[in-house]
Fold these 3 entries.
Entry 1:
Amino acid sequence: MKSLLRSHCPLFVFLMVLLASAGCIKEPTPQPTVVMADWKDIPGWEDDNHAQALAAFRASCQVLQRRAGWQVPCWVAQVINEDNPEQVSTFFEAYFNPYRLQDVTGDDEGLITGYYVPDLRGSRNRTEAYPYPVYGRPDDLLVIDLDDVYPDLGNYRLRGRLQGNRVVPYWDRRGIDSGEGDLAGNELFWVADPVELFFLHIQGSGQIVLPDGNRVMLNYADQNGHPYRSIGKLLLDRGFMTRSEMSMQNIQRWAMNNPDLAPDLLAENPSYVFFRELDGRYQSPPGALGVPLTPERSIAVDPRRIPLGAPVYLSTTRPGNSGEPYQRLMVAQDTGGAIKGPVRADLFWGMGDAAGELAGRMKHPGRLWLLLPEGVSPPGT
């Protein structure tokens, strides 16, 4: 049968095209990505301590209060007694409508991952012990907003550099690490470990632990414009690791145990992040919304699908293999290069090694409900 199909492949393809053009083969009708829901259908809603999410939402209101439809809930949030759980829950139920999120196929289950703020040993000066640079945003990085020229592409920005009178792509990770893209003079710090530095780029924020024990917070400043490529997927595809072994900790362990292979593997992720130094006021880094993130209450989302600042209820399981439910109200306060689609979130676990243990093992299916005030329409409707 296979050889028969092969020998008649052009005829087979022709018939398929003819049938499709005649309307015999129909594409599935795309489903809406937001569906009106009911509070009673949200698993674990009544068991969550919404007061912790209220504090994160109040922080979001620094930005949201300037947007149409958000002024009233932001004003009321300031006078709610956070020590009264019933009052807090009533506030969210009275001033918001819940929407279940799903993809265009109607599937409401997506991927939930985690991130955190790592500690890196570093110095302000290059030494034998600290040879790897952490770069600030380079002056020759161009950011081109397409909105004025192509309004349909208003969510996209091009990043590049000038080469003569042409704009060309900015240096990728391999070009920067090899020195071909000369970023001398843009170093903020120097760190001890290249693998830790690579994961700093993935997390987007970190703390440099200086030789005298002082700590300095670093935060995302910009990116080179190249797409993120998962190193974990490459390890799976090449048989270096099984799916059950996959975690951030095991990826780091593999890289440290394979110093001859690791540099080339890391370079296959062309995305490169530039940082800025934060002053001592920040106990937690700001996300894309511009407000400090709250551990276990802030999530990174796709802002084309979920408006930054909005409350989002998450139902998933705790990191690891226990299957223990993890259900709580979050606030969308950050974004990420790998966070795409309506049912996709990255949970901020906090600072340091303990948070890193949880974040590194967080890769579970989950569901999301978007909370919006009356009069504020879901994205895409």
Entry 2:
Amino acid sequence: MAKKQKKIIGSEEWCKLTKLGVPAIKARIDSGAKTSAIHAYNIHTYRKDKVLWVNFEIHPLQDDRRTIVRCDAEVIDRRDVKSSSGISEKRYVIKVMISLGGSRWEIELTLTNRDAMGYRMLLGREAMKDRFLVDPSESFMDGDISNEDIEKLYVKIKKPATGLKIGVLASNPDLYSNERIMAAGEERGHDMQFLNIKQCFMKLDAIEPEIHNRGGKVIVGLDAVIPRIRPSITFYGAALTRHFESIGVYTLNSSQAITQSRDKLFSLQLLLKNGLDIPTTGFANSPIDTDDLIDMVGGAPLIIKLLEGTQGTGVVLAETKKAAESVINAFKALKANLLVQEFIKEASSKDIRCLVVNGKIIASIMREAQPGEFRANVHKGASTKSIKITPEERKMAIKSAKVLGLDVAGVDIIRSNKGPLLLEVNSSPGLEGIEEATGKDIAREIIIAIEKKLGWKIPVTDPA
């Protein structure tokens, strides 16, 4: 009997998954991967005639979160799958019919969040066995699909912007956190606008107060603004936020909350006043008081922090008293305000970041500094992992966000021999590390927080 001729396909191909209602999805062809996977989120299981089924949603098109396909499928298995990064994850497995290269056959697909990956689908070697040969130097050997044709295929599926009008007030539209928030809002049907802080200016007027964008265009009709202000432009960013508030736009994190959270000394005073424990901290204006300042926090080693620093910048570990004196006096000579803080040795270069949204902890991770670094530098190349925090840590994180008036906050805590200690509360927390470590869609939770505050609900569509 003649051996069946295998078709040659490239490293990426368009596939069709009729059973799932996906007319076209670009797949990465990877013979190095055993299993196949598809990007899925909002995964929920249920029973139908005593059989386990799974309901989930798919973004079939890369960089497009407004095109959503809702799917149901019978669960055939749940198994541990190791990702390309070496992390093992328990995934639901379903069977679907796939069309590719003129053939149509049944394959197994695992459901996982591939939001950060280059392709929404991965086709592994088990699905291709005895059917295809892969030429990694080629692409779309079964035919490419133009953007215009994709638009036609998904025109009935794309979600229109029928929701709120939300502005993201920030500096860099390409920053991961800003991109994720924009995409999450569009996914839920909102009209999202990126507002560059440096390109916005204000008109203060008793009758017609306005905010303009570069070119003189007046920004109107916003229901809400999400301020994500860099520390270096806190003054102007907070002023813009305050002006939005004055014209009746809801801001997720008020100008007052942002301002007081950015003032490290004031925020620590507020937190202490409300019964929240922090490492022993000293503050002085004159270099003459350096010795007393060092002794006040228990001597060296100690931490020296610039009041204006953030995310590990402007933070120094002084291991000896002489080193501490040199650093403090150097900063003072530059007329820089600084805090001196006790060094918590037992923290072992680790801290906890809790993400608080609307009074609830959405996610928690442990961050550990690279070897040779100390805890203040956990932001720089740190290893992260999802953790379960203690009830005491949970209470501390929620209360600290409430004390500072923040609806969204990144709360940093360290574990010490005397219990958890509060380090800092960030009004514009980054999402990349915590989303990757926990697999949670935090950007979506931020959008939902706005919806709840404004009493907006996703419209129920008429099945007809």
Entry 3:
Amino acid sequence: MLAQQQQIQFSVFSGLYDLIVPKDNLLRKINDLVDFTFIYDELVTKYSITNGRTAASPVRMFKYLLLKTIYTVSDVDVVERSQYDMSFKYFLEMSPEEGVIDPSSLTKFRKLRLKDNDLLNLLINKTVAIAIEKGIIRSKSIIVDATHSLSRSNPYSALEVLRERSKLLRKAVYAIDEDMKVGMPEKNTTDELEKELAYCSALEKYIEADEPLCQIPAVKEKLNLLKETVADTQEHYTLSKDKDAKTGHKSADNSFFGYKTHLAMTEERIITAAVVTSGEKGDGPELPKLLEISQENGIQVETIIGDSAYSGKENLEMTSEQDIKIVAKLNPIITQGGIKEEDKFDYNKDADMFVCPTGHLAIRKARQGKKNRGKNQANTY
């Protein structure tokens, strides 16, 4: 069974870890501090107990993905490094002489096993629990805000990632052999994703033709990372349209296509809740959910700190009922409740405009009331 595979297999060589991996090593600290068995509990339904061959431990597979994120390497390179890097083996709870998985297994786990699991809030919950247990969180305030995220199906975001990783590969090559510049394929200067993919593929073939160069770690890691990015882009970004992403607004004149990640964190900078919405959603309406998740994760909240987007009438009433203070600039446009409840328009603080339910920004502000009568006039949209 999978649960039995979570146990470390000790060997006569296990003492090497105490000699080679320092006590202050980052991976040793994470491994000693965090009980990763919760990953097994979350993913157990993704595996069959009775059919097929014995599966690799989901905890170990998840740790491989953490290593990928921490060190920004490809599936191939993180597996290869775990063959000889003792800190990696210690983190993965392997015996020093134990063999590694095939990189394709990690790719499959990354694409299939983690699908439809809300691991973001799961990890946040575990992080908060550890912080509370260790006495790190002492404040009773949360800070709320939102960040913009481009959709991965947006061709410009994928194109930018490809360009950045091809650039890093070229720099690694030039640092070893500047003469390679002469035969480099011509860069794509358009905003067409297909042409950028073609350029990256040509770049891969050109560099792979020099076998000794490809064996140099600095080049090899960048090459593998670019190849993995190209493969993921071809599989996900160009074959399907992201139907959940919508156009949001950073300002009245600056928009983006994608999502918003709404965050709550303590004064100790520990994230306590995260909610992802489409890009057109306002920040304020997500406050009740952020507060609820933070409280479910064990945070005692007495004060909420945010910007004017969170000072809406509904939020002020909701927090007042729980005897929670909101520290945010009051904006009369949203605190006065000028928009009808049934219309469900959101106020976008960045653009200083209202956004309709389908994501369209108001085109202008107008004035009502008698001209030059000060308070008799009010903003409408």
